[in-house]
Amino acid sequence: MKIILNNREEVFEQDKITVNQLLELKSFSFKMLVIKLNGQLIKKTDYDTTFVQDGDDLMVLHLISGG
Predict the structure, then answer these.
(1) From residue 4, how far is each of 57, 61, 63 by CA, in Å?
(2) Phi and psi for 63 in degrees, rounded to 5?
(3) What confidence category does residue 67 fall into, taking pLDDT thresholds of 50, 70 and 90?
(4) Element (H or E) spanning 5, and its range?
(5) What is the pLDDT of residue 66?
(6) Structure letter (DSSP) for residue 51
């Protein structure tokens, strides 16, 4: 499948994959992430049940705070 991940085209062998599986495959390890799938925010509790499929647009944003 082909998707857009953070404004870049990515190709995966699977036809669909959960958000959580994709985060693991791409080594996103930050605890505080905001995920948007096709413009819709995805709750962290839904990462295991929300599927990314061919043609989807996924944004993974890291929340960083400082002082």
Answers:
(1) 5, 14, 20
(2) -90, 125
(3) low
(4) strand 2-5
(5) 72
(6) E
Size of the chain, expressed as the number of residues it contains: 67
What share of the chain has pLDDT > 90, as a percent? 85
Q: What is the pLDDT of residues 26-38, one digit of tens each?
A: 999 888 999 999 9
DSSP 8-state secondary structure symbol assigned to residue 21? H
C-alpha torsion sign, points 36, 15, 55, 2: positive
**Mean per-residue pLDDT for 42-57?**
97
The residue extents of the domains of the chain are 2-62
Q: Is 6 left (phi over 0), alpha (psi -120 to 50) or beta?
A: left
Q: Find out if CATH 3.10.20.30 is the number for domain 2-62.
A: yes
